[in-house]
Amino acid sequence: MLAGLFFAACAALALAGLWLIVPRDVPKISGTCALILTFAALAVAILH
Description:
This protein is mostly helical. The chain is about 90% helix and about 0% strand.
């Protein structure tokens, strides 16, 4: 649980940093991150 929160916070900080550098690419990348997080949550739900 704690590791999941840590990884989610790291992803959010990475997206914020990316937004500061290349703002127009953030929607494409955040959509990809959301898809990856969805698959990861599904895998955790199946394994749990």
